[in-house]
Amino acid sequence: MNENAETKICPHCAETINVAAKVCPYCRYWQKRWSLQNPYVNLVFAIVMFVTIISPLAIVFDKMLGPKEQFATYRDDISVVSSQFSHRFADSNLLNTVVGTLTNRGEVSWKDVGVEAQVYDKSGKQIDAITATADDYRAAVILPHGEVAFKIEGKAARHEADYESYKVFVRWAKDANAWP
Predict the structure, then answer these.
(1) Among 98, 106, 160, 163, fewest CB within 10 Å belongs to which?
(2) Taking the CA atoms of the chain, what radius of gyration do you get in angstroms?
């Protein structure tokens, strides 16, 4: 090829084009592959930048919003170590109160632990229940192999003399690493 020539052959379509042409007017093939004006080079650059920026953000969002541990799988890991049932009066209302300690024998940290106390009469019939909702009771985070105290309280449905025994159950909890 003559260096002083004003034309050249397009390597893609074999048409004769001007030497200064950046794009073939016939097939739209870019004459310089690595030019920053080449849309393919810009596309590759944009994809690399997107992956470089978005990948770390996706990892962070997955940690925050991704699937967390389900309490049902680990229900037996949290148990009531000890508890006490008592009555107290607030104004003219009789209140049933249960205080105690929960333990976590598992490897997952739990928060917003829900505790329920079922109360029975002398014949063993259930006569009352105290269920702590997430708004009423927020236990501290129970770390793996840790303990936390709880207190739940509710207005009595019967007279104080009707209450004979009780049982305490852990009903729900959230993965402490869940967001929010």
Answers:
(1) 160
(2) 35
pLDDT tens digits along 50-78: 999 988 888 887 777 766 788 899 999 99
Rounded-to-integer distance, Cα 17 and Cα 33, Å: 17
Element (H, E) at 85: strand 78-90
State which amino acid sits at residue 112. D
- Sorted by sequence, the CB contacts under 8 Å of residue 136 that are 6+ apart come out as 152
Contact 151, 97 (CB under 8 A): yes
Same domain, 162 and 90: yes
**pLDDT tens profile 91-123:** 889 999 999 999 999 999 998 888 999 999 999
Q: What is the pLDDT of residue 131?
A: 87
Residue 113 near residue 142 (C-beta atoms within 8 A): yes
Q: What percent of the chain has pLDDT over 70?
A: 91
- How distant, in Å, are the alpha carbons of 73, 84, 110, 115 from that of 172? 11, 20, 10, 7
Cβ neighbors of 27 (< 8 A, separation 6 or more) are: 10, 12, 13, 15
Residue 147 structural domain: 71-175
Structurally, the chain folds into a number of domains equal to: 2
The model's pTM is 0.60
